[in-house]
Amino acid sequence: ANPGLWFGDSGTGLYSPATDAIGFTVGGVGPAWLITAGGQLTTNVNAPSFATAGKLHIAGGSSIFSSSIIASRTSDDTVGAALRFGKSRSTAIGGYAAVQSSDDLGSINWYGADGTDGLLSSRIRAAATENYTPTARGSQIEFATVTTGSTTLSTRLVVEDTGVRVLTDLQINGSGTLKIGSLISRFESSEQTVPTATNTMSVAHGGTRVPDVFQVFLRCKTAELGYSVGDEVLIKDDLGDTTRGHQLQANATNVVWRYLPGSSAAPSVRNGSNVAAVITAANWRAVFKAHWL
């Protein structure tokens, strides 16, 4: 669109793209920016508001960078770019009336279109935890999401001055360790090759003392004997299989599995008919686990 008021060339300047709106166009392409009657600065007067009309709205199309925001700082020091939120209880802009406990200090909200409207689905919120004074400004950060199949936003995790409070189940997926401070409370080894003959397998657990609970599992990697991939079977003596023995032990550094078959063969498990059956070693892996209470 060509501007009504132009600068330097007839394709760059100001014009009115809609009722009660001022647009800026560059090179006859635009509007590059619009100022609406409500004081909103936007790139498109028809852009969806996603539940609320903010004062700055960058609306983009299919280009990956069309709605990106970039903040950068180039300086020979330790300071980087910043995004800052502020909150005051003052009734006049520029005032610094103290915030009160539970006041919202700022949030980052994510919205998704459902075919009709843009709805809130995730949020990170900072909140005051006390009435603010020059010597007190306690705060916390809350993380909230919507459960799959629901529309209710629920707080899942809160970072407080006393630590992190988890409001839902804490899940640790995959192998690895869980540390509390410098202490390990949970250990899971990488997957080990299953023995097919008398063998002593020792895996370092990384703890500082003998674990309170230690176990070894057979993890199914290729379905067989009624087990699916990912299923686990606890290693222990089976009274119905007198040809194989197992001994588990632990010390301050390792978990040890001693496998004692009567003949050169892989361990056995109970199949779908509750009968002891020898596994195919290549279809399984051994996993060592330890816990400190």
How far is the N terminus from the C terminus?
A: 70 Å
Count the E strands.
Answer: 22
Q: Rg, please? A: 31 Å
Q: Helix amount, in percent?
A: under 10%
Mean pLDDT: 85
The helix-strand sequence is EEEEEEEEEEEEEEEEEEEEEE
| Tally of helical runs | 0
Determine the structural class based on helices, strands and strand pairing.
mainly beta
**Low-pLDDT residue spans:** none
Largest sheet: 6 strands, mixed
- State the strand order across the main sheet: 1-2-3-4-5-6
Strand proportion, as a percent range, falls in 35-45%
Task: Tell me the overall shape.
Answer: elongated
Can you lay out the helices and strands and say which pair or pack?
Blueprint: E1 5-7, E2 9-15, E3 21-26, E4 29-36, E5 41-42, E6 56-57, E7 104-113, E8 118-128, E9 139-146, E10 153-160, E11 163-166, E12 176-180, E13 183-188, E14 192-193, E15 199-204, E16 213-220, E17 232-234, E18 244-250, E19 254-261, E20 268-270, E21 276-278, E22 284-291
Describe this structure in words.
Helix content is 0%, strand content 44%. The chain has strands at residues 5-7, 9-15, 21-26, 29-36, 41-42, 56-57, 104-113, 118-128, 139-146, 153-160, 163-166, 176-180, 183-188, 192-193, 199-204, 213-220, 232-234, 244-250, 254-261, 268-270, 276-278, 284-291. The strands form five sheets. A six-stranded mixed beta sheet has the order 1-2-3-4-5-6, with no helix packed on it. Strands 12, 13, 14, 16, 17 and 22 form a six-stranded antiparallel beta sheet that branches. The chain has a five-stranded antiparallel beta sheet with strand order 7-8-9-10-11, with no helix packed on it. A hairpin with a 5-residue loop joins strand 2 and strand 3 (21-26). The termini are far apart. The mean pLDDT is 85.
